[in-house]
From TrEMBL:
The protein's name in its UniProt record: Glutamine synthetase/guanido kinase
Annotated GS beta-grasp domain residues: 101-202
Family the UniProt entry places it in: Belongs to the glutamine synthetase family.
Coiled coil spans: none
UniProt-listed GO biological process terms: glutamine biosynthetic process
GO molecular function list: glutamine synthetase activity
Every GS catalytic domain range: 214-654
Family annotation (Pfam families): Gln-synt_C (PF00120), Gln-synt_C-ter (PF18318), GSIII_N (PF12437)
Organism domain of life: Eukaryota
Length: 764
């Protein structure tokens, strides 16, 4: 969409041109893939066509080579050179047949996003003859190139583990995640190799390595507990499943380009709500705007090709806000797919002249965005260990794993608070649209009653309400009382949207995770805490069993009753937003960690370090301390960037606009007086504006001084830098915003230098 911009155009004219372009510009359309007979292809036929799946690999490799790879993938042997070279050749041919000219090791440094470096398949072979050197071009990809690459480890966050003179790091192919091709420019594509990222000394520098480690230790602990409970089961592997509900905003890209705060920080640092926003509650599940539908439809097609199972799309609560949700997958694959979905959505939105916003709170006063992580555990036979079944009160296996999760929260709630903490998510947590900072678990009335009944050794209460519903085993049936409508099944639990960690039928929904962050670290921490709790419960069961050949029902119930009592403090069925809950949580001894810098300190407290380093072995002490420094530095830098961006906007755009409008009002008042007309309205507006402008100018100077003080603050403690930013810059930014937002109401629209919320939220 072309907008002709001249140097003479005012900010107002640029905004109006963008509005016209958004309304009248040509809309992008794509052709959905068709079969040979011209009918649309089914999604199942497109799914995974750009993925080098195990099935594809099996067809491309000799059977002994493929069998060798499967043994390596299951951890039974190392990947030998012959196997690696064979796979590299097969995947190169497969990728080049799909237009690939380059390959990349795709990894997840501790930046909250992904990283990649593209290398060409093209290579040159020199032959020396009497006539001189002869160069022959060939396409080449070796097993060594597949297995590892070498990025500069000093150029990514390392928390002091790597420096410029210690720059070597390695990316290593993660064989548990399939390679894929993504379409690039000019009809080409790139082969992506999902990878982990480690230092020269073998330390994890990324998000994925620790996630894979946590999956392995949880698998061992859970398998051990299962085989203790059911010796005949012979479970050898337990994996965690994950489904990430991704929320986001879409705004017009031209409007976005006119907002320096959105471009630099990801959120609006100033801006007044329009008269109508989300208060009518009509956007949630409303009709998806046609422009947005074109974006999501194209995204879903790309995701189908990449084997990403997008299941649900809908409007979210706020105007301009939407959600995508996939089908559950193994957690490390689900994380890969979530990050890939975010990247693909960014590219597709750009093609439609839209910009996707992943910041947790891009607009003040309306709902922010989260990434609800739906987490569960399953065996290698596909049994969900968090499935209550029809009689949860006698399903001791389910209850023990449920109690392990509750014990993990009760012991390490502060760690989960660390895992969701960032400068951006702080704007969302507890803001009446997201869970508060107190980590508690919601189970629902029925499971709450099941645990209480077991603890008190009494029968279950009856949940039926005869005039409206009839009981069935494991749930209830609702009678809608309309003849033309069928009775419907009712879930075991209601939904508590205020709970940060809610049980939702056969999984836990970790609702507090921020929309912008990678789900890797929150899931890693959850895996670690649950692993430690499973180990603790297994030890209690062994002590209870003693020399007996197997556990009795009384043995299991004794441990179950103990842990029901121990974990009762972390269970809460009410309104997590209420002041009463804050006071009750304090009485229960639950941590109420109000700021990110305060939360960060818990990462290196002895209790949590021991669990992460000694008990589970997921982290080394140096890896944990480096992560502590990284998250503190990131917080301080993010806030400092926001403060400096706001200073630029105030000094170069807001104050000049206010001065210009005051001048216009003054000139208008003077002109009216010369012709004998009353200028009271103009003078009243001037008098209202003048103290605001003076206050803004004073706050501008104060924020400048605070920024300079933060920059020059000397301390070896990274957490102190984060606290300085939190205690001085964050409130100063909020204070300035109040004045600017009040000025926006007074200053005439044609003088205002930035697109307003109405233009940002309501032009798609």
């Amino acid at each position: 969409i072309a907008i002709i911009i001249t140097t003479e155009m005012s900010a107002y004219e640029l905004r109006k041109s963008a509005l016209v372009a958004a309304a009248t510009g040509q809309k992008r359309e794509i052709q959905y893939p068709l079969k040979a007979d011209g009918k649309p292809r089914y999604p199942s036929e497109i799914y995974g066509e750009n993925v080098f799946t195990l099935k594809t690999m099996a067809k491309a490799l000799p059977k002994p080579i493929f069998a060798s790879f499967l043994k390596q993938r299951r951890g039974r042997q190392n990947l030998d050179k012959t196997t690696a070279d064979s796979i590299a050749h097969a995947v190169r041919v497969w990728a080049m047949d799909r237009g690939a000219t380059h390959y990349t090791h795709w990894f997840q440094p501790q930046t909250g996003t992904t990283a990649e470096k593209h290398d060409a398949f093209l290579s040159l072979v020199s032959t020396f003859t009497p006539g001189g050197e002869e160069v022959t071009p060939i396409d080449q990809f070796s097993g060594g190139q597949l297995l590892q690459s070498e990025p500069d480890a000093s150029s990514f966050p390392s928390g002091g583990m790597r420096s410029t003179f210690e720059a070597r790091g390695y990316t290593i192919w993660d064989t548990s995640s399939s390679m894929f091709v993504q379409e690039g420019p000019n009809g080409t594509s790139i082969l992506y190799i999902p990878s982990v990222y480690i230092s020269y000394n073998g330390d994890a520098l990324d998000e994925k390595t620790v996630l894979l480690r946590s999956n392995e230790v949880l698998s061992r602990a859970a398998s051990d507990l299962l085989n203790l409970l059911e010796p005949e089961s012979h479970v050898s592997h337990v994996y965690t499943t994950l489904g990430t509900e991704q929320e986001f905003f879409l705004v017009d890209r031209t409007m976005y380009a006119l907002r320096p705060d959105l471009k630099i920080t990801g959120r609006t640092l100033v801006g007044q709500l329009p008269p109508r926003h989300q208060q009518l509650e009509d956007h949630y599940f409303g009709r998806i705007p046609s422009r947005v539908m074109r974006v999501i439809s194209e995204l879903e097609l790309e995701c189908l090709k990449l084997g990403i199972p997008i299941k649900t799309r809908h409007n979210e609560v706020a105007p301009g806000q939407f959600e995508l949700a996939p089908i559950f997958e193994e957690s490390s694959v689900a994380v890969d797919h979530n990050l890939l979905t975010m990247d693909v959505l960014h590219k597709v939105a750009h093609r439609h002249n839209l910009r996707v916003l992943y910041h947790e709170k891009p607009f003040k006063g309306i709902n922010g965005s989260g990434k609800h992580c739906n987490w569960a555990m399953a065996t290698d036979r596909g049994e969900n260990l968090l499935d209550p079944t029809v009689r949860p009160e006698t399903n001791y296996r389910f209850i023990l794993f449920l109690l392990a999760v509750l014990r993990a929260l009760q012991q390490h709630a502060a760690l989960l608070r660390v895992a969701i903490s960032s400068s951006s998510n702080e704007h969302r947590l507890g803001a009446q649209e997201a869970p508060p900072a107190i980590i508690s678990a919601f189970l629902g009335d029925q499971l709450h009653e099941v645990l209480n009944a077991i603890e008190e050794n009494r029968p279950l209460k009856n949940f039926s309400v005869p005039q409206f519903q009839s009981i069935k085993v494991g749930g209830t049936v609702l009678d809608v009382k309309v003849a033309a409508l069928p009775n419907i099944a009712r879930d075991l639990t209601d939904r508590n949207r205020t709970s940060p960690f809610a049980f939702t039928g056969n999984k836990f929904e970790f609702r507090a995770v921020g929309s912008k962050q990678s789900p890797s670290f929150p899931v890693t921490v959850l895996n670690c805490a649950v692993t430690a709790a499973i180990g603790e419960i297994a030890a209690e069961l062994r002590a209870q069993k003693g020399a007996k050949p197997r556990l009795s029902e009384e043995d299991k119930l004794a441990v179950i009753r103990k842990y029901i009592g121990l974990t009762k403090s972390v269970r809460f069925e009410g309104d997590n937003y209420s002041e009463e809950w804050t006071r009750e949580a304090e009485r229960r001894g639950l941590p109420n960690i109000r700021t990110a810098p305060e939360a960060f300190t818990y990462l290196i407290k002895e209790k949590h370090m021991d669990m992460l380093v000694k008990d589970t072995g997921i982290f080394t002490a140096s890896e944990l301390r480096s992560r502590y420094h990284i998250i503190n530095e990131r917080y301080a830098k993010d806030v400092l960037i926001e403060a400096e961006t706001l200073l630029t906007i105030i000094g170069q755009q807001i104050l000049p606009a206010a001065f210009e409008y005051r001048k216009t009002l003054a000139e208008s008042a003077a002109a009216l007086k010369t012709v004998g007309v009353e200028a009271g309205p103009e003078i009243d507006t001037l008098n209202e504006m003048t103290p605001m402008v003076a206050t803004l100018q004073a706050q501008y100077k104060s924020l400048t001084a605070a920024v300079n003080a933060a920059i020059t603050h000397h301390s070896d403690d990274s957490n102190e830098h984060a606290r300085v930013a939190c205690d001085t810059l964050v409130p100063a930014i909020a204070s300035i915003r109040e004045v600017v937002d009040a000025l926006e109401i007074i200053v005439a629209d044609k003088y205002w230098p930035l697109p307003k919320y109405t233009e940002l939220l309501l032009t798609i």
